[in-house]
Amino acid sequence: MSKQELVFDDNLFVFETVMRVRHTEIDLEQHVTIESMTALLSEARLRFLYARGIKEVNADRQGLIIDKLQLDIMSRIRVREELLFEVGVEPVYDNGGSIVIKITRMHTGEVVAKARQHFRNYDFNLDKVTKLDKSTKEALYPHLFRL
After folding, report:
1. pLDDT by residue (tens digit) across 73-119?
2. Among candidates 110, 24, 42, which has minimal Cα distance to 74?
3. For residue 12, what is the DSSP state?
4. Rounded to whole angstroms, what are the CA distances from 54 to 27, 64, 137, 138?
5. Taking a C-beta distance cutoff of 8 angstroms, is the pair 48, 137 a contact?
6. What pLDDT score does 91 carry?
7. DSSP calls for 83-131
8. Would you say the C-alpha torsion 35, 118, 19, 79 has a positive or negative sign?
């Protein structure tokens, strides 16, 4: 499998949250499992969306779904480490975009992982991908809608 390095412009990151690695998220060697890392990324994404006022599923039964995940783990993460998750959004198009996440150790600032989660807007009533509505676009990219 080829390795494509994740490179993000630091001005993309507009949200931060901190999480501590729990005992239930580690393997026998005291390191975070890939499944747990994926769950931590989902939690960071959901905290970001909540802070932007975006519900998981809105009143019209539409919501953002992840259809691709790219993850690059640069360093092993141990139990009880506090991690800083920096979250941002790469350019949005009509029916989706990419949420980018950089994870660093709180006390050293060492980057331990990076991820890109490609999302699409999904209509659960119609059972298909649809265009993002204006309010979701404004929440994800407020600077594009300011005069």
Report:
1. 999 999 999 999 999 999 877 778 999 999 999 999 999 999 999 99
2. 110
3. G
4. 33, 9, 10, 10
5. no
6. 80
7. EEEEEEEEEEETTEEEEEEEEEETTT--EEEEEEEEEEEEETTTTEEEP
8. positive
Tokens of 33: 């499992």
Residue 69 main-chain phi, psi, to 5 deg: -130, 130
pLDDT of residue 101: 98
The contacts of residue 146 (CB under 8 Å, 6+ apart) are none
CA separation for the pair 121, 54 (Å, rounded): 12
At 56 the three-state DSSP class reads: coil
Helix (H) or strand (E) holding 43: helix 34-51
Q: What are the pLDDT digits (tens) for 35-64? A: 999 999 999 999 999 999 999 888 889 999
pTM value is 0.91
Contacts for 6 with CB less than 8 Å, ≥ 6 apart: 70, 72, 100, 114, 115, 116
Q: Which of 81, 131, 103, 92 is nearest to 16 (CA)?
A: 103
